[in-house]
Design goal:
about 450 residues, alpha/beta, FAD/NAD(P)-binding domain, Polyamine Oxidase, Chain A, domain 2, 3 domains, seven-stranded mixed β-sheet, five-stranded parallel β-sheet, about 25% strand, globular
Length: about 450
């Protein structure tokens, strides 16, 4: 097989893994990242003598793809499994929400519904036939099988917090996937949850990938935003390269790992309208996260779901109730999480503005909370934080092979039925690399033509 010149748009885990796998196949690889840092939503920043993710991250027991990649990169021993503390804020009180016994103590539900909620978790963890679940919305499934009290006091507020006005359209398969993955990190009916975190943050995984790519001669370019795809003048349905804000670069193959709307922005007019419609069909919720460095702890909970829509955020993740504060010079690191439409005013707010909005509500979690605790405030945004997965979604997933010869798509729309995350980005990168390698090698109808 002749080596191909392969350009990858996007330096998150899908793009970096695809580059790594294609390089192992012998191809010449270039990765073009819009921003100044690698890792996508797992990118990190320096903080208190170490590094930490822009957006909170951990690994589950079922995350075999990224765990296997770490072993292959020689850093599998740099993981630790830590007991997590999951909580649920409702009506002014924080409840533990990990074991069946925690559910039995959840007083907002009557005893019968506490048992039903526990049975829901156990049942969905055993379900493998997700296809039949995608035909019904999470709202309708819960109302039908669990009842109104469980919906209104547990799942309804969480779905509305995550998906806003689109909450009623979210498929039950999406919720199944969240429960199925979470259950993989528990052993036995009464076991607490253990999650994995790399020593030194996810930066060690990103750095190991970059070092392997650099050692193999990959061309890695940050601050290279692709603004246009180039097509053959004699064949407008064949992609031959990209235009960045700095230069035009020829390629035999282009793999786009960007959100659907970004691909539409750079695609040529010759992109098939049916495929373009698939890209337009799935809306995204944007993510905005306020990272706080505090002198004191806000609560005892690592991951706190907020089931109260009078709160202006959906989650409080106190990272140092998971990784100890001693690793951050004794400071407490707290993420305040939100999923919003991009035109929501909160998405445009600066860190100080968000904190002023959130601070009174943090006192509802801990009445002792004082703004003087906070030493640093940083805000992070992700336009494509969460695809909104609606009913019968499997029928609307865009193919990896686009109608344009030589152009492939690998993004979070194609991870289904699982939800987005680093583990599935690694899987996605491997799958697209295998597909491109096969197409380059077999000369079939999808095979790009080598220059």
């Amino acid at each position: 097989m002749n080596p191909g010149r392969i350009g990858i748009i996007g330096g998150g885990y899908a793009g970096l893994t695809a580059a790594y796998e294609l390089q192992k196949q012998g191809h010449d690889v270039t990765v073009l990242e819009k921003y100044g840092q690698w890792g996508g939503q797992a990118a990190t920043l320096p903080l208190m003598g170490t590094r930490i993710e822009y957006f909170y991250h951990h690994l589950f027991g079922s995350d075999t793809h990224i765990l296997g990649l770490m072993d292959e990169l020689g850093i599998g021993d740099q993981l630790r499994w830590i007991e997590s503390k999951v909580g649920f804020y409702y009506d002014g009180q924080v409840y533990d929400f990990v074991t069946p016994f925690d559910l039995l103590r959840f007083r907002p539900l009557n005893l019968f519904n506490r048992v039903k909620l526990g049975m829901m978790y156990l049942y969905l963890q055993q379900v493998d036939d997700w296809q039949r679940l995608e035909q019904i919305s999470a709202r309708d499934w819960i109302l039908r099988y669990m009842g109104r009290q469980i919906y209104e006091k547990v799942w309804g507020p969480l779905l509305r917090g995550k998906f806003g006005d689109l909450a009623d359209q979210v498929s039950m398969t999406w919720l199944w996937g969240k429960i199925k993955v979470r259950g993989s990190s528990r052993q036995g009916a009464t076991a607490t949850e253990k999650l994995a975190y790399p020593l030194g943050s996810f930066e060690i995984i990103t750095r190991a990938l970059i070092e392997r790519l650099e050692a193999g001669g990959a061309d890695l370019r940050t601050n290279h935003e692709v603004i246009e795809l180039v097509t053959d003048p004699l064949d407008p349905c064949r992609v031959t390269g990209v235009v960045t804000k700095k230069e035009t670069i020829p390629f035999d193959v282009v793999i786009a790992t960007v959100p659907a709307y970004n691909l539409l922005e750079i695609a040529p007019p010759s992109l098939d309208e049916g495929y373009a419609e698939l890209l337009r069909a799935v809306p995204y919720q944007a993510a905005v996260v306020l990272l706080l460095v505090s002198k004191k702890s806000l609560s005892r909970i690592y991951w706190m779901n907020i089931a109260d829509r009078t709160m202006p955020y959906v989650g409080v993740i106190e990272h140092t109730n998971y990784v100890p504060p001693s690793e951050y010079q004794g400071r407490h690191v707290i993420y305040i999480s939100n999923y919003l439409e991009r035109d929501d005013p909160r998405y445009q707010m600066r860190a100080n503005e968000l904190f002023e909005l959130y601070a009174p509500h943090l006192k509802r979690i801990n009445p002792s909370f004082d703004s003087d605790w906070i030493e640093k405030k940083i805000v992070f945004h992700a336009e494509a934080g969460q695809p909104v997965i609606t009913c019968n979604y499997s029928q609307r997933i865009p193919e990896h092979r686009t109608p344009l010869q030589g152009l492939y798509l690998a993004n979070t729309l194609q991870i289904y039925p699982e939800d987005r995350g680093t583990n599935y980005s690694v899987r996605l990168g491997r799958n697209i690399a295998r597909m491109v390698g096969e197409d380059l090698g077999n000369g079939g109808p999808y095979a790009p033509r080598l220059a």
